[in-house]
Design a protein that fits this description.
- The protein is mainly alpha-helical.
- The chain has a two-stranded antiparallel sheet.
- Helix content is 40%, strand content 8%.
- 7% of the residues are buried.
- The protein contains 3 helices and 2 strands; from the N terminus they run αββαα.
- The longest helix is centred in the N-terminal third of the chain and has 19 residues.
- The radius of gyration is 18 Å and the shape is extended.
Length: 101
């Protein structure tokens, strides 16, 4: 692609991202739907599914507030940092183990 073509694509992507950022939904979760309807269901992010989180029953929502959503993320992170059997170190960033302090 030429520089001009790349600039056009990036500009178009920026416009799409901006349009998406203006959408508001009544709940926090994953968007599902059809051509005529969109709705929010359980969150399908890696933070709620991978590394045995789904099997451990990590809440997936949908969440009615950002406080509920971020509390869930913090709770999962806390469990994984403090439990040697759960610690993966990839939730957001690598966190040092308590014994490394």
């Amino acid at each position: 692609m030429t520089v001009e073509q790349k600039c056009k694509v990036y500009s178009q992507l920026g416009g799409i991202v901006y349009q998406l950022s203006t959408l508001r939904f009544p709940k926090i979760g994953s968007i599902f739907g059809s051509d005529t309807d969109a709705y929010i269901e359980e969150c399908l992010r890696i933070q709620t599914l991978e590394y045995g989180r789904a099997e451990r029953g990590v809440p997936r929502g949908p969440f009615t507030s950002s406080m509920d959503y971020y509390t869930m993320l913090a709770d999962v992170l806390g469990e994984e940092v403090l439990d040697d059997n759960l610690y993966i170190g990839v939730f957001f960033d690598v966190f040092p183990r308590p014994e490394q302090f």
